[in-house]
Amino acid sequence: MNQTSVSLISVNDWVSQILGEAKHKSPAAQASAYAPSNIALSKYWGKRELSFNLPITGSLSISLAEHGTKTGLSVIDAPMHQVILNGKEVSANQSFSIKVSQWLDRVLPNVLKLRVDTHNTVPTAAGLASSASGFAALTLATNSLMGWQLPERQLSALARLGSGSASRSLWHGFVKWQAGEQANGSDSVAFPLEHQWPELRIGLLTVSSQKKAVSSREGMARTITTSALYNQWPQQAESDLATIETAIIAGDFETMAKTAEHNAMSMHATMAGAWPPLVYWQPDSLTQMQKVWQLREQGLPLYLTMDAGPNLKLLFEAKHQSDVEAAFPEVQVITPFG
Ligand code: PMV
Q1: What DSSP state is assigned to residue 168?
Q2: Which of 35, 45, 188, 221 has a 20 to 30 Å separation from 77 between CA atoms?
Q3: How high is the pLDDT of residue 1?
Q4: Atom number, ligand 1, closest to the C-alpha of residue 267
C-alpha cells in the first residue's frame, strides 16, 4: 500500500472535467445548505492517495440528524474569500479559512470570491468533528449557488476533496462510502442505505471540546508509516463493514453495535502502536469506557464508538434511553431517524 502514490491526473484537472461548462455558469447572488454531521460505525482510517483523499477501505456511518452545519454563500466583490464561523470572521491565515478557500478555488472560476457564513448546529461543547458536515454543506451550497445540478455521486466526490468523511455527510441515515479503485476517485463515493432504524439512539458523551493536537490526516499518515498493527486493519475494516451492513438490514442491534465498538477499539490500537504513540483518549475517556463496560456486564445493551478524539459516542436503542440517561446524566441523546 503506497499512500503517497501520485495520481495520473491532478485534482484540478479532474474537477474541470466533471464540472465542464458548469464551472463558468453565472452564480446566483446567494445560496445556503444544511448537512448533518456523521459518526462512522465502521471507520475510515488510512488514505491510499493523499491529494484526492482516497481511502484504503470502505466505511459506513450514521448521520446525526439536526446536529450538523448550515452554510450560507454570497458573492462578494473582494480579492479573497471571506470565512465566518459561528458568527465570527476567521482570519485568512488560519487553517479553517485556508482549507475552505482552497476547496472553493478548485471549483470556482478564479475571479469569483464568496462570503462563506458557516454555523455548526452541534453545540460547541459537544466536541464533535465539524469538518464532515462543514464540507458537505459547503458542497451542497456551492452546487446550488452555481446551478451545477451535479449528480449526488459527483457531489460526494467533491465533498471528499475537503475531508474524507464529508463524502458521507450529504445524506441522513446510514451511509456507505465505497473505497473505489479509480486513480481519480470517481468511484470512491458514498451513497445512502435504504434501511431505517427508528429505535436507534446515539449518545454524545463529551470529555473535551478542545481542538485535537494531531489532525486525522496527520494521525492516519503516522499510523500507516510507523505502526506494525496497521497491517491487520484493512482486512478487519472490510469485514466489519460487511458485518455491520448485514446487521443493519437484519435489525440485529447487538451484532451491529458490538462490531462498531470492536472496530473503533481496533482503530485506536493501530494508533497506539504508532511512533510517536498516538493516543487521543484522556483519563476521563477511559473512566467513561469502563462505566459502559460495567453497565453492559450488568445486562444493559450499551456500546460505544470513538473517532480521532477523546469523546465517546454511545450506541443503544430507545427502550434503554432512560437507563442510559440515569447512568450518564450529561449525555446528549440524538435520534438519527427522528
Ligand atoms: O474525514 P477526516 O479526515 O476528518 O477523518 C475521519 C476519521 C475518523 O473520524 C476517525 C473515522 C471516520 O470514518 O469518520
Answers
A1: G
A2: 35
A3: 44
A4: 10
CATH class of segment(s) 200-334: alpha beta
Starting at the edge strand found earlier in the chain, the sheet holding 312-317 runs 303-305, 312-317, 200-205, 332-334
Residues 6+ apart with CB under 8 A from 110: none
Please name the residue ranges forming H helices in 76-181.
95-107, 131-146, 152-162
Q: Which listed CATH number (3.30.200.40, 3.30.230.10, 3.90.76.10, 3.10.20.70) goes with 3-192?
A: 3.30.230.10
Evaluate if residue 5 carries a pLDDT over 60. Answer: no
Looking at residue 7, its pLDDT comes to: 57
The answer to whether 45 and 273 are in contact (CB under 8 A) is no
Tell me, in angstroms, the distance from the centre of ligand 1 to residue 216's CA: 6
CA atoms within 13 A on the CB side of 230: 21
CA of 156 to the centre of ligand 1 (A): 15
In this predicted structure, the answer to whether residue 206 has a pLDDT above a threshold of 50 is yes
CB 170 within 8 A of CB 190: yes
* Alpha carbon of 81 to ligand 1 centroid (Å): 26
| pLDDT attached to residue 123 | 62
Q: Do domains 3-192 and 200-334 have the same CATH topology?
A: no
Three-class secondary structure of residue 220 per DSSP? helix
Residues 6+ apart with CB under 8 A from 124: 86, 209
Per-residue pLDDT at 9: 81
E-assigned strand segments in 180-276: 190-192, 200-205
Determine the pLDDT at residue 211: 77
